[in-house]
Design a protein that fits this description.
Residues 297-335 form a coiled coil. Helices cover 37% and strands 26% of the residues. By secondary structure, the chain is α+β, with helices and mostly antiparallel strands. It has a four-stranded antiparallel sheet, with helices on both faces. The protein has a four-stranded antiparallel sheet with strand order 8-9-10-11, sandwiched between helices. A three-stranded antiparallel sheet has the order 5-6-7, covered by helices on one side. The chain is elongated and about 95 Å long.
Length: 336
């Protein structure tokens, strides 16, 4: 694309990294810090160049039948840019690339592989990460970033109207629904970026390479870093308003509930047998307790409810602890 003289004059020390033809002689030229839009001379207007800096705070997109309008919101002003509808995807990708580079969300040498918009979801795939933004604006500071270093699996679940992309990071799945007509391009873009990053040739090879390492679980158990290791939760019950004695009861109950009776030793077997036959050898299955005349039953039910709540809270703490420990192990291995 030939660069108009008026744009050359506006460049200063910057260089043009890309351009999009907007029809006739109009063009959008992209530098590292701004977008320069050239409008050629018309019957009622002179040629001109408008500048759109990439340090905008929010970006919204409004699509019409033939035109797409971009609204760039800055701290003290709002700028609008209209382009032909069939050029909007290319302009959006360049605008977001400029914004992410200026804000430091992507590295100077990091390139975009694709940008996708599905209703209020915007996805940006680079050669190193996935960026996700949800909201009624197309982009602002409220987005999530997922590094390809942390990918532990990729799956696709095809449906009649949409395809679910299940991309797992540190074994936690991120589900993204893409309309069926756009899903093939989303899949192609993600696979190509991930295959290149992890140096594999197929989806099966990718999942084999980035999947959970069986040796890692063994190392955690051997080093006493599993859930059964007795390490105190990273978030204590004191911080959440809990009670120490309640926590101890919850921990004991959790272990008893998750281990078969045969693995809990003679005491557990005896306890199981006692519960099955009653303390006097009577078959308790044929005896229905009279809860209406025994106030102890009501009190026991309340205690069970309290204990259940404590167990659930403890389980949540243990899950948080497990995720943190896995991340620490990974960082320690990477630092070797």
């Amino acid at each position: 694309m030939e660069i108009p003289d008026l744009v050359q004059q506006e460049l200063g020390d910057e260089e043009i990294r890309g351009g999009v033809n907007l029809g006739d002689e109009d063009a959008a030229c992209f530098t590292p810090t701004r977008t320069l839009v050239y409008r050629s001379e018309g019957l009622l207007s002179d040629e001109k160049v408008a500048s759109y800096p990439h340090d905008f705070e929010r970006l919204t997109v409004s699509e019409g039948r033939r035109k797409t309008k971009f609204s760039l919101i800055y701290t003290g002003e709002k700028l609008e840019l209209s382009v032909p509808g069939n050029r909007s995807d290319a302009v959006l990708e360049r605008l977001l690339e400029g914004k992410l580079a200026v804000s430091g969300a992507i590295a100077p040498d990091e390139s975009l592989a694709g940008v996708f918009r599905f209703s209020e979801l915007t996805l940006v795939v680079t050669d190193r990460q996935l960026l996700k933004h949800i909201g009624n604006v197309t982009w602002d500071a409220d987005y999530e970033a997922f590094s390809f270093d942390d990918v532990t699996g990729l799956e696709f679940e095809e449906g009649s109207v949409a395809t679910a992309v299940v991309l797992s990071f540190n074994e936690r799945p991120e589900r993204i629904k893409a309309p069926s007509e756009e899903a093939p391009m989303v899949r192609k873009t993600l696979e190509e970026a991930l295959f290149a990053y992890h140096d594999v040739d197929s989806l099966a090879d990718l999942n084999t390479k980035v999947g959970a390492d069986p040796d890692e679980s063994a190392d955690e158990a051997g080093n006493g870093l599993g859930l059964e290791s007795g390490i105190d939760p990273l978030v204590s019950n004191d911080e959440e308003g809990g009670d120490d004695s309640e926590t101890a009861s919850a921990s004991t109950s959790t272990q008893a509930a998750t281990q078969p009776a045969s693995e809990q030793g003679p005491t557990a077997e005896a306890t199981t047998e006692t519960r099955a036959t009653g303390t006097a050898g009577i078959d308790t299955d044929s005896v229905e307790p009279d809860t209406s005349t025994d106030p102890d039953i009501t009190e026991l039910e309340a205690q069970v409810a309290e204990l259940t709540a404590a167990v659930e809270a403890q389980n949540e703490q243990l899950q948080k602890q497990e995720r943190t420990i896995k991340q620490l192990i990974k960082e320690l291995r990477q630092g070797r």
